Amino acid sequence: MDDTDVPQVAIGDVPATFGDGVVLLDVREDDEWQQGHAPGAQHIPMGDIPARMAEVDTAARLYVICHSGGRSQRVAQYLAHQGYQAVNVSGGMSAWAGAGRPVVRDTGGAGTV
């Protein structure tokens, strides 16, 4: 597999809820996460991924997301090379919000992207 072979999925192909072997892995920075994120997403900033690999479910299907798809593409490639089932979410959280999917804050209120 070369670096371009990580699958891309459109927002419409991403599950609406996560758990039971399906993880939405948000790799944006802390300040981006705090402004708003998908309900049920797991947050590990891109730069922390190598040090926090133990937190990523090795058996899960990983939907990796960032703001627009660039950082998540690199993380999905990295995870795929480590043996994870990772796909990149095309368009990232911008596409997520644009599709009318919920965006929340940790405080429980509505978030922004």
UniProtKB/TrEMBL annotation:
Keywords: Transferase. Gene3D superfamilies: Rhodanese-like domain. GO terms for molecular function: transferase activity. PROSITE patterns: RHODANESE_3 (PS50206). The keyword Isomerase does not apply. Residues 18-105 form the Rhodanese domain. CDD domains: RHOD. InterPro entries: GlpE_sulfurtransferase, Rhodanese-like_dom, Rhodanese-like_dom_sf. SUPFAM superfamilies: Rhodanese/Cell cycle control phosphatase. Signal peptide: none annotated. Its EC number is 2.8.1.-. This is Sulfurtransferase. It comes from Mycolicibacterium vanbaalenii (Mycobacterium vanbaalenii).
